[in-house]
Amino acid sequence: MDHPISDDPKSPLLPLHHDPDPIQQSQNILSGLKSTLTLKTLFVLLGPLLCTIICLYVKLDGPVASRNMLAVLVWVFAWWLTEAVPMPITSMSPLFLFPLFGIASADDVAHSYMDDVIALVLGSFILALAVEHYNIHRRLALNITMLFCGDPLNPPLLLLGICATTAFVSMWMHNVAAAVIMMPVATGILQRFPVGPDQSVAVSKFCRAVVLGVIYSTAIGGMSTLTGTGVNLILVGMWKSYFPEAEPISFSTWFFFGFPLALLIFLALWVILCCLYCSRNSSQALSGYLDKAHLKRELEMLGPMAFAEKMVLAVFSMLIVLWMTRSITDDIPGWGTLFKGRAGDGTVSVMMATLLFIIPNKKQKGEKLMDWNKCKKLPWNIILLLGAGFAIADGVRTSGLADILSKALDFLEAVPYFAIAPAVCLISSTITEFTSNNSTTTLVVPLLIQIAKIMHVNPLLLMVPGAIGAQFSFLLPTGTPSNIVGFTTGHIEIQDMIKTGLPLKIAGIAVLSLLMPTLGAYVFGTNEPVQ
Question: Cys staple from 211: which of 147, 471, 474, 491, with CB 3.0 to 4.6 Å?
Answer without folding.
Answer: 491
